[in-house]
Amino acid sequence: MQLNIPDNFLFAIFIAVIALYEAYNRDVITMGMIFSVIPENTIIYVIIAVAILVLNNEIIRMRTEAEWKSEARRQASVQSHRTEYSSETETLWVEFTAIFNERRKREKRSLTKMYNVLSEEIDLSPSTLAKF
């Protein structure tokens, strides 16, 4: 799993918040000490920065999803005149295949392991998925 810079920043913020929370709960530091080091405005800026990073990650995810869907539709339109299925069925098949392959790549699973995971999720036998 490769993290981009916004993900690393969010992870660092998360770790810092957990560390401050634990230190506060164990009476190592007080709220006065925290506010003397971190002004109140800084907390607002951090919240805004985190919100922007989360939105940026969501926009990137949506762009990536739109790109592969567009590619899937293009492939389906190329294949549709060569098969007995409707273009809508072909598009759905290509999209399913793209999602399957993307998830398999992201989770680093073999075909067999992916069939097993999906079979549990959608209540079909792995052999049915493999034949399909």
Automatic annotation (TrEMBL):
The chain crosses the membrane at residues 7-24, 30-55. Keywords: Membrane, Transmembrane, Transmembrane helix. This is 7693_t:CDS:1. It comes from Ambispora gerdemannii.
